[in-house]
């Protein structure tokens, strides 16, 4: 039993020494991980036509275990799926950051890439570190929460729509947020929501005409119209005396309800004048 334990400790010690003196690639994102020669890793998911970045440290160790701060000089793609493109990281940048763009025609599924960290000219005697990366292509790369699901407002009464977007994909490409369907409302904004982050925004609305409307909120990736989500919010705008006076002060078209007190005042004046004349 003692010999078995001793042998196991020796094996683990040898293995740890072996890995300690083996050059590695410290990947920062889109998914962090430590990669060795001929290793593999999963990078998450991305929409068709979208771009994402693979970032990694230039630092590594040589065969003696000595730390080399700028061991890797660039990060590049050796093999990509058909229709994809890549831009290798600038030479001697730390961290290294390479860009990969998927084909807009990529169907849903998992795709394989071969990437490489290069020691240019083998100056640090590291050679090249080649590894396999996998990424999933999907149009479902973000979540949206819109509240409230319906609105009941008075004429000219302000209200808010709250929009929360969570980017579950690997891409940092911007999103286009469009709002339309209400009188005089046709707005478009652009937001950058970095991968694995969430952002929330409030969108104020105000309608100066009574009626029943449908407010549409559309969120679309700037890189692909296939990556989008559409939400409809039923909006009811009702007239009331207070709302009509408020809306009228803002230049809105007033509804008949506002005339009722005016008619009453005019009738009172008419009665008083007639009695005074008599």
Please give the structural blueprint.
Layout: H1 2-20, E1 24-29, E2 33-36, E3 40-46, E4 51-56, E5 60-61, E6 67-68, E7 74-79, E8 85-87, E9 96-101, E10 109-118, E11 128-137, E12 142-147, E13 150-154, E14 159-167, E15 175-180, E16 186-191, E17 198-205, E18 211-221, E19 228-238, H2 241-249, H3 259-277
Parallel strand pairs: 3-11, 13-19
Antiparallel strand pairs: 1-2, 1-4, 4-9, 5-6, 7-10, 8-9, 10-11, 12-14, 14-17, 15-16, 15-18, 18-19
Q: Biggest β-sheet: count, sense, barrel?
A: 5 strands, antiparallel
Terminal CA distance reads 126 Å
Work out the count of structural domains.
2
CATH architecture annotation of the largest domain: Sandwich
Mean pLDDT: 84
Treating each run of at least 4 consecutive H or I residues as one helix, how many helices?
Answer: 3
Percentage of residues in DSSP E strands: 35-45%
Q: Helicity range of the residues?
A: 10-25%
The third-level CATH topology of the largest domain is Immunoglobulin-like
Helix and strand pattern = HEEEEEEEEEEEEEEEEEEEHH
How would you explain this protein's 3D organization?
Strand 15 and strand 16 (186-191) form a beta hairpin. This protein has helices at residues 2-20, 241-249, 259-277; strands spanning 24-29, 33-36, 40-46, 51-56, 60-61, 67-68, 74-79, 85-87, 96-101, 109-118, 128-137, 142-147, 150-154, 159-167, 175-180, 186-191, 198-205, 211-221, 228-238. The strands form five sheets. It has a five-stranded antiparallel β-sheet with strand order 2-1-4-9-8, with no helix packed on it. It has a five-stranded mixed β-sheet with strand order 13-19-18-15-16, with no helix packed on it. It has a four-stranded mixed β-sheet with strand order 3-11-10-7, with no helix packed on it. The protein is an alpha+beta fold. It has two domains: 21-137, Immunoglobulins (Immunoglobulin-like, Sandwich), CATH 2.60.40; 142-263, Immunoglobulins (Immunoglobulin-like, Sandwich). Mean pLDDT is 84; it is low at 1-19, 246-260 and 262-268.
